[in-house]
Records
---
Amino acid sequence: MKNFDPADKIQDLQYFGEFGGVNPSISDSSTYTFLSAKTMFDTFEGNMEGCYLYSRHSSPSNLYLDKALAAMEGTESANVSASGMGAITPTILQLCGSGDHVVSSRTIYGGTYAFLKNFAPRLGIKTTFIDITKLDIVEAAITPATKVLYCETVSNPLLEVADIEGLSKIAKRHNLTLVVDNTFSPLSVSPAKLGADIVIHSLTKYINGSSDTVGGVTCASQEFIDNLKNVNSGASMLLGPTMDSMRSASVMKNLRTLHIRMKQHSYNANYLAERFENDGLKTVYPGLKSHPSHKIYKTMINPEYGFGGMMTLDVGTLAKANALMELMQSKNLGYLAVSLGFYKTLFSAPGTSTSSEIPMEEQIEMGLTDGLIRFSIGLDNNIERTYQMMKSCMIELQIL
Ligand code: PLP
């Protein structure tokens, strides 16, 4: 990781448009013509590099974004998709069939949790959910049927950190594929460099950064991406969660500023987390020394991009959390909205929103309390001013 700067890898790519434009041309076609029928046949068979057949398979615009994201994650290849879930579900279905087993972190995005818990069993795929921070528990959950070890680098919403190097050793020992969702920590962490086999992002969040689209990507070996896109057996090709070329072109333009945005998100979140913890609020942020995985996370990150823009505060009760979020929104400090990675601060109470798919008793077991607010800290220029305004909301509601 030390010699790998993911932002430099993106910067080093150079694409020109059809007429020498500084941005690549957008491929506005669903299908492509061939001068010879033989070339069409070979393309169908997957033997013709540089030829396009049909845009559900791939398009020039999607391939530009695939290349940039593979470069960013240091993998051989990548495949963009219409949403983060459109990357996660085909990846798991490509790796697992009936009778197979997944060991997954229990603190993951609610949609992924619901897929593994409620949907995948319909296809004969079972999942054991465990505390990903305890490597002995992870290893003990592995059975002869286990194929995949699944986690998020920094988990949603509890901000638990997965020790990717430790998990990778376990995965190798048991011949499993380690799949890591890196949505919360692009650039900060490069999971493939730490031993992950497959890295996934919801592009909807930091990477696109403007809350105007959903999107996703799977970054992996060329062999795995070819399998995902195989016309006869590829889960992405056959389930069809394809990103539109117009969108991939616009995500590509936003990707260019990701390094600047991540630094500011991290700076602002770190600033607020330190102050609110000092004020006596129960604050969770991986950059705080009090975070249980602070030490290990420090060794995992590319320090330039910091500890990320996500922070949680526990204000005691759901009623207080709701009142605080409504007051902060009325003062234009941010929006009461799910999702993350926007220029504006976004906040929500995960127990009643993004993690509501997780049953109440399981929420309690994993430490997801009622009064927890998840913050995606924005790009505010004057964060001290933001802190003072947030603090006065808390004082007004007798939270501080
Ligand atoms: N992974 C994480 C960590 C998420 O937070 C989300 C969405 O909130 C997803 C995946 C799913 O992504 P999408 O909403 O783009 O399908």
Note: Residues 83-85, 109, 111-112, 152, 156, 181, 183-184, 202, 204, 214, 216, 354 surround pyridoxal-5'-phosphate (CB under 6 Å).
---
Amino acid sequence: MATAVSTVAGEDGHRMQDLSQMIPGPILLLGAPGVGKGTQAKELVKLWGIPQISTGDLLRANVKNGTELGKMANEIMQKGQLVPDTLVNEMVALRLTDPDVKRGFILDGFPRTLVQADWLDERLAKKSGAPAGIQPDSLANTPAGSLPVVAVSIQVDYTQLLRRITGRRNCPVCQTIYNIYLQPPKVDGICDVEGAALVQRSDDTEKCFEGRMLTYQSLTAPVVEHYRALSRFAEVNGDQSVADVAAGIVSSVERLRG
Ligand code: AP5
């Protein structure tokens, strides 16, 4: 069981947490392209001090660094398809050996297929061994390691998702996420924090978005149903302010961990 979480009202009226007492454990953020998984993961990192593990970000880092995985993944990502399960699972397994996961972690964009979900469930239940050459994950023998995964699915309708995807811009230095329609920077095209020129992801076109949505419906929507059936699951309306969505996720995790 997670340590009890006490809640207090923050200055902005949203519920804030006495975070020092919280062991968040493993948390999955599920949802279609553009629902706000990355935006919300960054909010939860600030609240709970546990890492965001985004398979999309890890793959883009491989693309940028020109690794063999990156060369192969790039073409697949541009088509809105999924990188093979084995490769993504190995990438996540390696990340889970980092010591920063000991109080928990936020998986953003993983699992995305039932094969990935089964792998993760087994891995976290310690039923499967680590792949050859990879150590057991760093949750082993920690309080967070005994907590079951909780999954939160964020919901936003198709028209809004398209606007979010085509309007998204990122800071290449601090990774802050903006949206030219919905969350613009103070100065057009420039990061508020770093002053760097914002960039657009190459898969954030309307055409690629359509492919990503088809992939989501056929391969990832069943993952949502998988976790719904396991009961440690909540749905949050993503068509609200970032703070309100975050408050919904926090209260869902608190309830599921209670
Ligand atoms: P990935 O990077 O995971 O992309 P995705 O799942 O399509 O999700 P996004 O990152 O596009 O959206 P998001 O939900 O994080 O939204 P965000 O917070 O940025 O994956 C990319 C590719 O990598 C995949 O297509 C696949 O090829 C491959 N891949 C990744 N994981 C894989 C896996 N497990 N297996 C196999 N292949 C894998 O927000 C979007 C926009 O909305 C932003 O502009 C933001 O400012 C705005 N916004 C967010 N919240 C709000 C709000 N409340 N109000 C107003 N605007 C908001």
Note: Residues 1-17 have pLDDT under 50 and may be disordered.
---
Amino acid sequence: MTSRTSLASWQKLTAHAQEMKKAHMSELFSENSKRFNDFSLNLPPFLLDYSKNLINQQTMELLFDLAKECEIEAWREKMFSGARINKTEDRAVLHTALRNRSLTPIMLDSKNITDDIQQALNQMKEFSEKVRQGRWKGYSGKRITDVVNIGVGGSNLGPQMVTEALKQYSDNSVNVHYVSNVDGTQIANVLRPLNPEKVLFIVSSKTFTTTETMTNANTAMKWLVASSFDSSAIAKHFVAVSANKKNAINFGIAKENIFDMWDWVGGRFSLWSAIGLPIAIDLGFERFIELLEGAHELDNHFKDAPLEQNAPVILALLSIWNCTFLGAQSQAILPYDQSLHMLSAYLQQAEMESNGKSVTWDGEEISYPTVPSIWGELGINGQHAFYQYLHQSNNIVPADFIGSVESVTPVQGHHETLMANFFAQTQALMQGVNEEQVRADLAAKGRTKDYIDKVAPHKVHKGNRPTNTILLNQISPRSLGSLIALYEHKIFVQGIVLQVCSFDQWGVELGKGLANKIQKELTKNTINTEHDSSTLGLITFYQTKIK
Ligand code: F6P
């Protein structure tokens, strides 16, 4: 396979990066008063301002050339039409089909999967309404008041992030809880205040083999049976979402209580499937459909907009520019909307599990940096914790700032303070303040020369730190759907340009396998002396200390 590094655009970008490293964004803004117009997109779901990146017209032209040389449009078509682009698992990648609200037929292996999806949605609708309206009863005839979703990774992060983000849209007819950690503290804390007669468990696991989820589901079953004294209660209190019906049935879940998933939906892209059941129960099925509609709107934008005006393409190319060409190694996700407090955790899995890889589709070593590590926190909290690093450390961390024009919970005087910070931070990161300005400022405040000499270097902010700003009108099921789909497609484009298989996750297997072996040692209180000395020492210490 031809390496991306041999592409003409790649080589030009490499040379161009050396030139651009000498530039400063504040100068680029001074030179071009139209910079915001040139480098922003106003789409119905959001405004994307990417002018505060170390780019000029030539940079963007070269990046679009790169996208063309990598045949992004053809790859996009392959994904939407169900080609088996998940090469190492020989699967199609069709999470977009789950939100295909135009209901156009999508053929996979001579079958129109749009029909299957509609059927699954109907099942979700019927079930979620039954639970919400109190028509689904527990073993003692009482209505369900609490739903506990048991799942981890993609079977947890998506639904939990969305229910947290859309809290204001919930009528609280049912309380939704999440258990993902196999640390018993979490499930114990969740179950303690609940009444087993009124709890419904959703065991969400695509594979239905994930140890953490199975352990939590077993504990939940024991808790229920201990209260009901009857295993027939399970049918009234347990449903599953899985592509592995056989395992779910063997586990004890009634066949009619299993919601289907398909192998063409990756776990981290699965919130649009029945994995989103807790969302539908929490918010109502109509809201869930609005979420799908928002994502579909963005899918259409991604499919139809020219590359030069295509938000996911632009975000992907900028990430590649910042990381692969300019050398940034991490990226911060900084939501200023409280609703999005789980977004960075969600995107961590989405981007890092998808593209954190170092061989190409053909298994050849990749010689360039792929994706950055993703991290972040609510922006305001971050300002009082780690923004010092963003402003003055000698590592450049490109950041996405995400905010809303209107708050979903207006409280007088709050939103202006929030948004003033939102705007100020990207300005400060871009402009910085040089020593001359710092000295002039201190002198104007009447500081002595000695003081100025001592303090001035510490107050210099070099600026030139890249940010994207995504401004939604307001968090809603629809706008959130669009925002998530924006990042999903960004990740797809990154994967194609960087030549990594975005839809497998072999890197999680090694640790899982070793954990299974070590668990046997811990259970039997034996030890395999062939462990390396560190692991051996740790396990021995643990086993001698444990009571
Ligand atoms: O271990 C990683 C992973 O396989 C993720 O890709 C997935 O989202 C998560 O575990 C949960 O998997 P499952 O839904 O099969 O339990």
Note: The longest helix spans residues 477-498.
---
Amino acid sequence: MNNKSPPKSIGVLTSGGDAQGMNAAVRAVVRTALHQGAAVYAIYEGYQGMVDGGDRIREQSWDDVGSILHRGGTIIGTARCAAFRERAGRLRAAHNLLLNGIDRLVIIGGDGSLTGADTFRREWPGLVAELVHNGEIDEPTARQHPALMIAGLVGSIDNDMVGTDMTIGADSALHRIIEAIDAIASTAASHQRSFVVEVMGRHCGYLALMSAIAGGTDYVLIPENPPPEGWEDQMCGRLRSGRAAGRRDSIVVVAEGAQDRAGKPISCDYVRQVLEERLGEDARVTILGHVQRGGTPSSFDRWMSTLLGYAAVDEVLSATPESEPQMIAIRYNRVRCVPLMQSVEQTRAVARMIAEQNYAGAMELRGGSFTEMFDVFKAMAEASPSVTAPVHPRRLAIVHAGGLAPGMNSAVRAAVRFGRDRGHVLLGVRGGFEGLLAGRIEELTWGDVEGWTGLGGCELGTNRQIPTVEQLYAVARAIETHRIDGLLIIGGWMAYRAAHQLYSERDRYAAFKIPLICLPATIDNNLPGSELSIGADTALNAIADALDRIKQSAMAANRCFVVETMGRYCGYLALMSGLAGGAERVYLHEEGVTLKDLQADVEQMAAAFRSGRRLNLTIRNERANPQYTTDFMCALFEEEGRGLFDVRRAVLGHFQQGGNPSPYDRILATRLAAHCINFLSAQLESGSAEGAFIGLVEGKVTFFPLSRMSEMVDWTYRRPKEQWWLELRSVVRAVAKSPDADG
Ligand code: ADP
């Protein structure tokens, strides 16, 4: 029968420098391809494997990519391959692909690897013709594979590709750097010493800038935006004034490719010399090097790479010979396809601009939020502690409400330093709204919040108590007594409710007619107007860590683990940790749970164990269903799976709220806090008194008036009416369950 075309065959390879998260991408490519009925081959050792052929190109089954999500590096290997740079090498590569029927490729690598792929694609028809001419393949084979269709994923810890907001590995590298900076900060503080830390990034200052923000360091040097002439004085002045305000550790972060305005490289050793000579104190250099590439991938690198791998398969399977090759990118918190070569060319243009000292052009190509964060860092670091207060400083109070979210301290620190930089007096309210009523309010200075950026917990204290109707009068009195001109409320659902209440009662209490802003901070990620709240990323990392351990323990025996995550009625943590942790099934309140579902799931589970599986991971949101509780599910699975597997439960609980904030949460907290202070300042300057909540919508900082809160939330289940991440459920289904395992 010739009306049935053979299955499409996809090859996947990792090339160039390795990056954490590549394994998650490979796993997603393999499983999505199998799910869609395609054949999929791993090409080992990058292009070298393609040139060598033989057993370096191997068909993959579902289980070949099991248990690799947590592993750093790339299990299919990567290499630099000189032969692939030559046409002769690419001819061999084409032959080897055709021997396996492969004419679709997903390449995971940096700009070099992606350029190589594009050259290969353009040459493909000529290579195929030559192979026919040489008698190495026959005409029908050539006709079946007239074109090579490619999709690129960017694996690069530097986050240096224009066109995508994040590259695979960059977030994990930031984790490594921040672990190091946190460690250095404590030893530096003990000895009152200065440290110069070099991070990777030859043409890209992303890692340096973000680690300077997340690490709360004093100074940063990046290639795209060299410091002004005489920067040595500026740097030493900043360190001196920080010391005078009580800072004990001074850290300067230097990107590998840092240079001055004249294009002369700035070495760590030079920075050290300057510090020693001008400050007359001990300075040490730490070059982080390959540590940044190592270690287990962060939760973000696991789930984001999974989404990218899934989308790449969609892209190569639907591509036609005429399609322009695409790079699968993350733009504004969504997966998007962008023209591959345009991104590669722009990335090269940045390097060129830096070499030509066209720094404005380089910053422009890095994009708006990079420039914004550079300015944020400057403003934070230059929030001189000796600022002279204006004649009529305004008094801004900061209060928390709701559950604990890692990153709350980072937000307070940023707000205090920004606010003081703008000439305001910043007041910290201890113990949430109860503290406000009890008058536990004190001024916070620059030095008071020193070291808070990476501190877990919540220094000011938070709780779920918000004012009752009877207490509103006392709240109004407290605002008047302490002459509070503006209020920043950092917290979760209860914080938003309290703000909404104060805002709604403005007509009755004149004291509430002050500018009010809510900053989203909750691990549950259940707030309106923001796709991400502070704390959620840290919680996901904590869960991924726990799941790694649980999975390891479970592998020893045939076991099903039912893990319960927090989130109240919001399934964000459950779904995203399911993606990051490789769960077979995730139960959410948003979807509901039926007996029919449970029956089908347990049957599939049994079938999988029968066919050799040793582990099943099920994640259940704590309120997925009031009757089908975690205990109920465990009992049901145990009963039905008797003999085949045993069942254990793990309720992760408050473990998820603990720990120091992740780099991303620190950065987000800083960014949002800066915008909140700007909002309050602008309101006070213009004499307005709006109430709003801030958040990230499609990656952009957005404000919503408090008056819109009611229309945006589901009050019963305490979550936004629209939740962007629900659309990711199809990815979980595609990568979690083998198409052969349907019971
Ligand atoms: P990265 O992909 O991380 O930028 P490289 O630039 O070292 O790393 O590229 C990795 C591999 O990709 C190279 O060893 C080579 O095999 C292939 N490659 C890179 N650039 C080209 C090119 N212009 N033409 C063909 N192959 C290339």
Note: The chain is about 40% helix and 15% strand.
